[in-house]
Write a structure and sequence with these properties.
single chain; three-stranded mixed beta sheet; disordered N terminus
Length: 281
């Protein structure tokens, strides 16, 4: 236990040393990755409470499908990388949680409110820490842009905003409320495992995730490289990825445009390959 904590602290020091200074010249990355929403503190508190309530139930459903990968050192490592990435995204009102799912399936999932999972299959197909950070940044982007929450359809409410409807349902009582809440959770789970998040939202998560990655100080071409490598994989482990994500060619074309427009990769940035290998291999 003590050894694993010391390892985690040493790893944290290395990860945090990347920092935004590595991309100090790219001061506009954070602005472009931000939602720039203006809302009252009271509305933020109530909306976050509703989002967390759904997110916790969705996370529980994910863990009902896949068990956690029980490796304390590796889980701590993924959490440290995830927290470094999340610190350079917006929505500071959220506390992010990261975990590894024990499945060969290559995928990652983001539940509303900041519950993020990466599969063992995805992790062991990565080549370095920058790719891990890239995948987690993509999932963080789903949370910051509220991709799932905005698509929920709450029966029995008249609000135009799904977030407002969800907040209203959470503040009500009675059987209809419980049914509406359960239906919202069902919808979210269906998006993750069946219908997929909207293609335009997945593409936005690639774009925002790449910018978050650059702002964190990693090589921001890492997401593009990881997706390109997945494109070459076939088999059962890729079945869910193919079913719930846009075509790889479309994703890669968009990232190529972004990389060219933002001159990402013009200067060297950390990949942390050795540190990743010491934890994952």
């Amino acid at each position: 236990m003590i050894a694993s904590r010391l390892l985690a602290l040493a790893c944290m020091a290395g990860i945090l040393s990347l920092g935004p200074a590595a991309f100090a010249a790219e001061t506009s990355f954070r602005d472009r990755a931000s939602t720039a929403e203006t809302v009252s503190a009271e509305n933020v508190a109530s909306d976050v409470k509703a989002e967390l309530a759904v997110g916790k139930d969705v996370a529980a459903r994910i863990l009902g499908r896949y068990r956690l990968f029980e490796n304390e050192v590796l889980t701590n490592y993924v959490n440290l990388v995830g927290q470094a990435v999340a610190a350079h995204a917006d929505r500071p009102e959220l506390t992010y949680h990261f975990a590894i799912l024990d499945t060969d399936s290559i995928n990652a999932y983001a539940a509303p409110g900041g519950y993020i999972f990466v599969t063992r299959g995805a992790l062991f197909n990565m080549q370095d820490e920058a790719e891990l950070a890239a995948v987690l940044a993509h999932e963080v982007a789903h949370v910051t842009r509220k991709h799932i929450v905005k698509e929920l359809r709450i029966k029995g409410t008249e609000e135009n905003s799904a977030q407002s409807a969800l907040t209203r349902v959470l503040g009500a009582t009675g059987d209809p409320t419980r049914v509406a809440f359960a239906q919202a959770v069902d919808q979210a789970v269906s998006m993750l495992f069946e219908s997929g998040i909207k293609q335009e939202d997945e593409l936005e998560a690639d774009r925002v995730g790449t910018l978050i990655l650059a702002n964190t100080g990693y090589d921001a071409t890492a997401l593009r490289g990881y997706v390109a490598r997945l494109q070459k994989l076939q088999g059962e482990s890729m079945k869910m990825m193919h079913a719930t994500h846009p075509p790889f060619d479309k994703r890669l074309a968009q990232m190529d445009e972004l990389i060219a427009a933002e001159k990402i990769g013009a200067t060297a940035a950390p990949r942390a390959k050795k540190r990743f290998a010491s934890r994952v291999n």
